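Quick one, probably user error.
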């Protein structure tokens, strides 16, 4: 059933965003026909949108094949930069990575997916490629469980009803009672883990990052290779360090919030 749109909904803008979203790591370039098929748009409509995006500098064309330009990064980094969160998170994440020798990421919820907004990585062979902008189905990840646990029950169901845009298949949503029990347990213990639920060989543990009011802003995690790191090490060694890093970030964020607006540092994702 088609989603109801408000009276101020701009269909042309929605279609333009659909065209941008049709490109991915799995499809970095596409012909006009492929874009039209991926978005469900008529070819003339897809063509006009692609030409507009090309004039604006977000798309380039070569021999009838379209691809994104680096300018699209401005759309994502503007969001991260507007929070100022990355500048504050980076030293805490770097310290965490130095102590654990494992990669650490931050994510936020986008519908039924988590979206990576910051990352400090170590060079290890792991089953999934992760970078800023990567999205995974929330229920398959430790970060997603923490983010969902931070929502009111009605908002959880609404989020999970949004179709996933990840290339990784989403899991069926558990019955309401099972889901409520899972998220209540995550809230009570203050962390969540995922043991090869996202991909074989990938384990992770995540904790929430709160703002001064107690609202969950984002999550921070540690990801390990299952063949190298046991769940015991992940939970008994890495998790306390992860919690300390998140608490340090929360303290910095609270201090930033107390600054006068004109004196607050300008966030940047660079």
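Nope, works fine. Designed sequence:
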């Amino acid at each position: 059933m088609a989603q109801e749109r408000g009276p101020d909904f701009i269909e042309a803008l929605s279609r333009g965003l659909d065209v941008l979203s049709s490109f991915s790591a799995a499809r970095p370039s596409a012909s006009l026909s492929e874009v039209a098929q991926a978005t469900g748009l008529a070819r003339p409509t897809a063509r006009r949108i692609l030409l507009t995006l090309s004039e604006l500098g977000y798309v380039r064309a070569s021999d009838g094949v379209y691809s994104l330009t680096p300018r699209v990064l401005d759309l994502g980094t503007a969001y991260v930069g507007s929070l100022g969160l990355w500048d504050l998170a980076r030293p805490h994440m770097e310290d965490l990575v130095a102590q654990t020798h494992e990669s650490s990421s931050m994510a936020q919820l986008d519908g039924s997916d988590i979206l990576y907004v910051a990352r400090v990585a170590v060079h290890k062979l792991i089953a999934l490629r992760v970078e800023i902008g990567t999205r995974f189905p929330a229920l398959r990840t430790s970060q997603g469980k923490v983010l969902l646990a931070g929502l009111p029950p009605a908002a959880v169901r609404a989020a999970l009803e949004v179709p996933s845009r990840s290339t990784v298949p989403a899991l069926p949503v558990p019955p309401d009672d099972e889901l409520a029990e899972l998220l209540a347990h995550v809230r009570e213990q203050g962390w969540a883990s995922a043991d090869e639920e996202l991909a074989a060989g990938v384990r992770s543990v995540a904790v929430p990052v709160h703002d001064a009011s107690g609202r969950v802003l984002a999550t921070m995690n540690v990801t390990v290779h299952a063949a190298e790191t046991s769940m015991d090490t992940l939970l008994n060694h890495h998790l306390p360090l992860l919690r300390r890093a998140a608490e340090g970030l929360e303290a910095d964020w609270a201090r930033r919030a107390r600054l006068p607006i004109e004196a607050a540092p300008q966030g940047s994702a660079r």
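The chain has a mean pLDDT of 88.
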